[in-house]
What does this fold into?
Amino acid sequence: MRIEEKMNDAYSKAALTLTTPGSLDAKVRENYRRELARFRGAPRAPRRKAFLLVAAGVLALVITGFGVQYFSKIGDERFSVEMTQIEAVSYNAETAEVVREQLQQVKDQLQIGEKALVYSPEIKKMTLPKLSGDYYFAEYVSNPRLDRDITSWESNLAAKVSGYKLPDTNSNALSFAGGKEEMQFGGVVVENDVAKELHSEVESGKQLAWQKIERESEAFPAYTTVYTDANGAEIYVTMQVMQKKSKMVGMTSGIQEMVALNGQEALFVDNAHFPYSDTQRNANLSWIDTQPEASVLYTVGSISDSVTKEQLISIGESMTVQ
It folds into this structure.
């Protein structure tokens, strides 16, 4: 059985709302093996890399060197996001609630600035335990430092995100709530050995396995600015800096629509099976800003039921005015 058939079979058996592209072949597995070898210290000279990205309700691969085609695509010559829509195989709201409680339980034990990987029988039910013979899935959780001073936060963004843009807070009735150096939900998981240990602990009967992780640097630096609107709903603006030529490919059960922001192509996704919020929803709008040294993936979103697509588009338009 080819690797893509194994993936599809595994997804069908796991209670997933999300899946991995069936058209990826054995090259993906080899990419995983080489990337893992680099993190274990083995010498190699790779040209292609693969990372697991668990963020914003999408289980996806961030890879380079592949030509897989999807229904929705935004991007430039350096970085692109390619997504397709699938029907939810299964989604259990009660299991999702247990997972949220587990992640919060671990977060409560982390000091500010610490991060960890988490695995449990409930996480196993919701997600694919292994994407290939060598790659193990685990949830990412952190207790990030939150900068509540807008002047300080903008100074930080100016130093780290070329040509950064934030919303017009006046026209969109937004109030700054804080900034943090990571994505709003999830993260890029590269500590495969840690994830494998967590799998072993759960297989041995442990109900909640987790371990702190430390990183010298992030593979894809992300910066999230959080706002509240006039109704008190939280809205986030995330910037992911992509310096290397790569693409994110994946699938989601959420509704997708291509929209234009002052001529800027953007992708709107509204996911009603989002396990990381009590509302089960995550709506977001993404586009890519091309800078000389990097491509910046902007995502404006909210888990609040009161935030509309039109509201997110208005915010995006205020960030893309030429």
Q: What stands out?
A: Residues 1-29, 38-70 have pLDDT under 50 and may be disordered. Helices lie at 3-13, 26-39, 93-107, 121-126, 150-160, 192-203, 309-319.
